[in-house]
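Teaching soon. Got one?

===
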Amino acid sequence: MLEFLELRVIVRTYIACFQILDVITSCRAGLAQSIRADDEPVDPKRELEDRCKAPCTRPLKEYQACSKRIEGDDSGHKHCTGQYFDYWRCVDKCVATKLFTHLK
């Protein structure tokens, strides 16, 4: 029963991450292009992700602690998928709010 509940949480987290990713990806098409001196378009999402990593230190530390905890597991049964997706959900949620300001 516990494995089923853990699987449900992982699946929900996975779906939530893809929903956020879909929003960000669909907004990309309408983004105002930032132009460099050499006329190459710049994707503001990368810069925003870098800025949004700082407020997400708690999920990052949880992920790193999990990774360290399961470091020696050779069976492959232990994983940190939930913590990984929690971290990127935090980053994507922060990016999504800032990314819309770059729309035309």
Notes: The first strand starts at residue 34 and ends at 35. The radius of gyration is 17 Å. Residues 70 and 78 are 6 Å apart (CA to CA).
